[in-house]
Structure formats: structure tokens, C-alpha cells
Design a protein that fits this description.
The structure is a single chain. A seven-stranded mixed beta sheet has the order 1-2-3-4-5-7-6, with helices on both faces. The protein has a single domain, classed as 3-Layer(aba) Sandwich (Aminopeptidase), CATH 3.40.630.30. It contains five helices and seven strands; from the N terminus they run E-H-H-H-E-E-E-H-E-H-E-E. The longest helix is centred in the first third of the chain and has 12 residues. Strand 4, helix 4 and strand 5 form a beta-alpha-beta unit. The chain is an alpha+beta fold and 155 residues long.
Length: 155
């Protein structure tokens, strides 16, 4: 049975959980983003939380912080991104969270990006009606190796 997924504003008490999740080596590999040291992680979250145009939400699965989902403006495009701790993978949580975010976010088009090897994230986007529209070569760095990124769009 799928957990009950809800979204709420990020709270200070969520940050240590999200920090630990982003340090997981398998999560780093799948996301193709290097883990941040604690000071950098907290500074990053302080910066993105201070921008009123950013939407930053905690993903709760049965009341437990499972990850985060967000939307931001980048180079004139509205983007979405999400991360779920490994303990919560494979349960449909990211898909449910993205559906809820999309219901709150009327702006279109929206863009999502994922590493070429992250098929689970691709499926999340596809289940939420995003369509693959491109691929960028060697833009992500995984253990010193450049990785391609797939571009998805929702109209």
C-alpha cells in the first residue's frame, strides 16, 4: 500500500534530515549532484529559502520527512526538482509529490531535468505528463565523470 503523501513548507527542523539524505552515495550517483558539506548545505538552503519566487516544500510520507520538492525560475524558465531519501525509494512518493505540486503550480511550460542513468526520476516525470524534449551532453559530474542530462517539458 502506498503511503499518504503530503507537502508542507520546509521547516528548520527538516534541514538535518535533508542534509543526511543528500550525503547518501547512491543518491549522489543517481542525482549526479555532489553532496555538500554541512556549512555549504545550510548556506544553500538559506539562500534558496530567502527567494520568494522559489517554492520549497517538504515531502511527508505518512507524516515522516521523505524528501523535498521545489520549483524555481532559471533563465526565464520555471523548473521543478525533487529528492527523496533512499529509504523511501520505489514507493511512488516522488510521483505523488510532483502531482500535488503541479496542482498548485498553474504556470506552463515547466521543465524537469534528470541524469541520463536515473530511470526512476524519468518515470516520475513521465507519469506526471512531462515529455522528453532534449538531452544536454556532459553537464553533470558524477565522481569526476561528465554525465548527460535529459530535458523534460510539461505544457
Amino acid at each position: 500500500m502506498s503511503p499518504e503523501v503530503t507537502l508542507r513548507e520546509i521547516e528548520d527542523s527538516d534541514l538535518p534530515i535533508l542534509y543526511e539524505q543528500q550525503r547518501d552515495p547512491e543518491a549522489v550517483r543517481m542525482a549526479a549532484f555532489p553532496a555538500r558539506e554541512e556549512a555549504d548545505f545550510m548556506a544553500h538552503w538559506a539562500r534558496v529559502r530567502s527567494n520568494p519566487d522559489n517554492i520549497l516544500l517538504a515531502i511527508l510520507a505518512d507524516g515522516e520527512v521523505a524528501g523535498s520538492i521545489m520549483s524555481w525560475e532559471m533563465e526565464g524558465q520555471r523548473e521543478v526538482g525533487y529528492g527523496v531519501g533512499r529509504a523511501f525509494w520505489g514507493r511512488g512518493i516522488a510521483t505523488q509529490a510532483l502531482r500535488q505540486l503541479l496542482a498548485q503550480l498553474p504556470q506552463r511550460p515547466l521543465f524537469g531535468y534528470t541524469a541520463v542513468h536515473n530511470t526512476a526520476s524519468m518515470r516520475v516525470l513521465e507519469k506526471c505528463s512531462f515529455v522528453q524534449v532534449g538531452q544536454s551532453k556532459g553537464v553533470l559530474n558524477v565522481d569526476g565523470e561528465l554525465v548527460d542530462e535529459i530535458v523534460f517539458r510539461l505544457d
